[in-house]
Amino acid sequence: MNLQDYLRKQQPAETVCELVSVITGAVATIKSEFLGGDEKTGIFNIYGEEEIKIDKKANQILIDVLSKSGLVSQIASEEEKEILQCNSNRAHFAVTLDPLDGSSLIPTDLAVGTIISIYGNGDVLSGLGEISAAFYILYGPLTLIVFADQKGVSQFVQDKNGVFQLVKEKILIPDGNLYGSGGLRKDWLPGHKKYIETLENEGYKLRYSGSGVADIHQILTYGGVFSYPALQEKPQGKLRLLIEVGPWCYIIEKAGGLGTNGKTRILELTPQKVDERTPVYVGSKNAVRRAAQFLEQ
Ligand code: AHG
Ligand code: MN
Ligand code: MN
């Protein structure tokens, strides 16, 4: 079954299927920009990170197709300072985008991704508990989509004709033993350091590429925990609550896992602004729950 047929079966609203196909229809164009996409632009986004060409291109491609669709009233993108308001005459979805996640890996030819969340209520700042569906596209040796909504999590792989075909459904995250943590060890707070050392002593294996979607996908597939913690000089860590962490936690929780900031479930939080950051622990329930015990000490 392909993604379109799956969504038609799964989703009561035809407009959701259309919205997802508008986004996934842009995949080939985004991929065509990878070659030469690592050129520096000299422009820094609101997080102080220098954008490379592919960040700008992927952002523009997705904003163009979404705003032309007439289905979206708001877009919040990692590469835009403000929430974009669009003319929507056919539906009023709000969408968050990380157009190219892990873009620093483009020069190394490792896997990168696109992260999307959809708010059926048209308001990206209404709270992460309001997410109606979320998915990521992972551009690796294969191009795949992991799509989550109320009914669960499914994986699709792009075939030779460019069509996304269902390969796994009702995905559940196993209770595995992989871990990855962002930030320099010297900047970790004592509780986080103790937590990671405990996992290492128990035989957890390090898997961290610096491309969030690839790292999350590995955790979803094999189990364990992905973290980007609070750091000495950055109590909110690095990752973006609305645009990266919210959709990841939605997907992982729909697969039976858990996502927290170390204390509170991420999906109970309401971002106050587009660029709000948060520490994150996301993955198998068991490993994520244990983080809280160390962080309280
Ligand atoms: P982006 O490429 O969209 O800026 O995101 C990078 C993010 C995320 O993909 C990854 O998990 C993390 O930043 C890596 O950060 P470090 O390089 O600090 O490990
Ligand atoms: Mn990102
Ligand atoms: Mn990005």
UniProtKB/TrEMBL annotation:
This is Fructose-1,6-bisphosphatase class 1. Mg(2+) 1 binds at residues 78, 98, 100. One of its GO terms (molecular function) is fructose 1,6-bisphosphate 1-phosphatase activity. Binds 2 magnesium ions per subunit. Pfam families: FBPase, FBPase_C. Residues 175-295 form the Fructose-1-6-bisphosphatase class 1 C-terminal domain. Its EC number is 3.1.3.11. One of its GO terms (cellular component) is cytosol. Coiled coil: none annotated. It is an enzyme of class 3 (hydrolase). Substrate binds at residues 101-104, 208, 238.
